[in-house]
Automatic annotation (TrEMBL):
Annotated ranges, domain HTH iclR-type: 14-75
The protein's name: Glycerol operon regulatory protein
GO molecular function, one term: DNA binding
Gene3D superfamilies: 3.30.450.40, Winged helix-like DNA-binding domain superfamily/Winged helix DNA-binding domain (1.10.10.10)
PANTHER family linked: HELIX-TURN-HELIX TRANSCRIPTIONAL REGULATOR, ICLR FAMILY, HTH-TYPE TRANSCRIPTIONAL REPRESSOR ALLR
Signal sequence, start to end: none
Function: May be an activator protein for the gylABX operon.
Domain of life according to the entry: Bacteria
Swiss-Prot/TrEMBL keywords: DNA-binding, Glycerol metabolism, Transcription, Transcription regulation
Keyword Mitochondrion included in the entry's annotation: no
Length: 261
């Protein structure tokens, strides 16, 4: 009985989501519409259409045009679209930034973004000294065991960061940091120093260093990293890469509309 009720509830939620999307598509197509028109489009009673529109209005996804008027797309959609455009611009501009930096450093350069509790690489370029050409683009990597992931994790809102740290963190190598208290201390250093490093934490023999990329609103939206074999990208060399990485990330952030005061 409980399973049946649960399934009915899930089906109802999916139906509501589908109808809400249909409302947004109608308003995008027609420019504006009243409750009667929306109800007719959805094939539902006007009271159902009114509840859907009220829910969308509470999130600023639609807005009413004057008292008891028709409805149109709200500015909340602009906020969501802006986030999508940031990612598209980041991938497009990031490819060139990665190529230039990889040529300068001779190492592999990546740009990664946070995606559902992991990091996902969206841009990559190989330097002249790279001994392997493994393609990391599109690969999902753990936040706690990579330099890019640590940057993204360090700048997450505290509640989101703590949610990750409360999970069971996988140990990929003997060097992987999995104790939450140790990670909290390291992430505080990342925010203080402006960069993160990973020494054989995801793969033995591989080191990496990463810095944040900022969006127009001042939030960290991505991380730029340089990685290479430990015999060449030594612990001593890592601080030397922070300057060029930060310069490239700052330039890319500016192209995305971020101008620090």
């Amino acid at each position: 009985m409980r399973n049946s009720e649960s399934e009915k509830g899930a089906a109802g939620t999916i139906q509501s989501i589908d109808r809400a999307i249909s409302v947004l598509e109608l308003l995008a197509r027609e420019g504006e519409a009243g409750i009667t028109e929306i109800a007719a489009e959805l094939g539902v009673h006007k009271s159902t259409a009114s509840r859907l529109v009220s829910s969308l209005e509470s999130r600023d996804l639609v807005e009413q045009l004057g008292q008891r008027g028709k409805y149109a797309i709200g500015f909340g959609i602009v906020r969501l679209a802006g986030a999508a455009m940031n990612r598209l611009d980041l991938a497009r501009l990031g490819n060139e930034a990665c190529r230039s930096l990889a040529e300068l450093l001779g190492e592999t350069v990546n740009i990664a973004v946070a995606d559902g509790g992991v990091a996902i690489n969206i841009s990559q370029a190989f330097g002249s000294a790279a001994v392997a050409t493994r393609n990391w683009t599109g690969r999902r990597t753990p936040l706690h065991a990579t330099s890019s992931g640590k940057v993204l994790l360090a700048y997450l809102p505290e509640h989101s960061r703590e949610r990750v740290l409360r999970e069971r963190l996988e140990r990929y190598t003997p060097c992987t940091t999995v104790a939450p208290e140790d990670l909290r201390a390291e992430l505080a250093r990342v925010r203080r120093d402006g960069y993160a490093a990973s020494f054989e934490e995801l793969e033995l023999g591989m080191h990496a260093v990463a810095v944040p990329i900022f969006g127009a609103d001042g939030r960290v939206i991505a991380a730029m990293s340089a990685s290479g074999p430990s015999y060449r990208l030594s612990r001593e060399r890592v601080p030397q890469l922070v300057g060029p990485l930060t310069e490239a990330a700052t330039e890319l952030s500016a192209q995305l509309g971020h101008f620090p005061r």
